[in-house]
Amino acid sequence: MAAGASSTTDYDELIARDKASLDIFWLRDDSLADSDNLPPPDVIAQEIVDDLEAALEQFRLIAGDLANGTTETKEDG
């Protein structure tokens, strides 16, 4: 058997199954279809920066807790 033949056969078998579809039309977000309603790019960029900075702060707190051995889970309290 040639290299990669197994994965090709698996793919062909998967596609041959009933209801197998690679159509991802359902992932589209219709609320974003009208670009006239989007905020200006600088506002979008600032929102991304704010979200990333908040996430980074949370990871810093977690890393600090891990370094100090003071981690808690929701179940622990």
Radius of gyration: 23 Å
| Shape, principal axes of CA atoms | flat
| Secondary-structure element series | HH
Largest sheet entry: none
| Count of helix runs | 2
**Beta strands, count:** 0
Structural class: mainly alpha
In quaternary terms, these chains amount to single chain
Distance between the termini: 56 Å
The unreliable regions are none
What is the typical, i.e. mean, pLDDT? Answer: 78
**Total domains, how many?**
1
Give the strand content: under 5%
Q: What is the share of helical residues? A: 40-55%
Descriptive labels:
77 residues, mainly alpha, 2 helices, 52% helix, flat
Describe the 3D structure.
The protein is mainly α. The protein contains two helices and no strands. The termini are far apart.
